[in-house]
Amino acid sequence: MLIAMVPGVDIIVPAGPGDDAWRGLLPQLAEANANRIALVLAGNDDPDMENPPAGLCIHRSAAGRAIQLNAGARGSDAAWLWFVHADSRVIPATLRAMQRFVDDDAAAIGYFRLRFLDDGPRLMFLNAWGAHFRSRALGLPFGDQGLLMPRRIFDVLGGFDESVAAGEDHDLIWSARTRGIPLLPVPAPIFTSARKYAKRGWWRTTREHLGMTRDQARRFSRRHAHPDSIEPS
Fold it and tell me: What angle do CA 116, 140, 205 make, to 5 degrees?
C-alpha cells in the first residue's frame, strides 16, 4: 500500500541495547524544523526522560541498526528522512544546512562533515581528514555522517539490508552508487564520540576500521555490481 508523503523531514535515531547516548542528542535535535523525531529503541530499554522534544515518537524493534533504521522509516510519512546515530551531536549550523538541503529537494543523498568530540586521542583529526577523503574522493560516506535522503530514494534502494551483519550504511551507499544516485556533501559538521579510540587505542582502532572498510568495499561492490538483480525489500 502506498503511503501519502507529507512535506518536510523526519529524523530517525536508532539506539542499541543499553545505549542512552540519545539523551544528549535529542535536546539538540529539538531545534530542528522536523515533522517528528523517531527514537527507535531496542527491546525493553527505558525511554523515560524529562522534557521530551516536541514531535518525539518512540518506536521499538528488535535489536540491530539496520532493523531499527527501517522500523523508524516505516513509521514515517515525511518526504525526507535523516538518519542520525544516537552518539552524534549537532550544532545550529548543522540543522540549518540540513533544512536547506531538504528545501532544495534534490534527488540525492546528503552527508555531513564528520568531526570528533574532544573525548578521544589527539590524533583524531587524522580520522576526520580520512572520513573527508573517503567521502569526497572515494564517494563513500558512512552513517555517522548523518545520511539525509528523500523517501523516494530510500524506497528505490529497498531500505537498509537487515541481513548485513555490519556496515549496513556502507552497503546502502554502494547500492546508491551503482544506481547512479548522487552523493552530495552538506556544508556543515556533525560530531561523533571518539571514546572507543581512547578505550581501545588509536592505532589499533584506526587499523581495524581501515581493514573493515576495505573488506566491506570489496564485498559490497561485487554484491551491487548488477543493481537490477537486487529486489527491494
Answer: 45
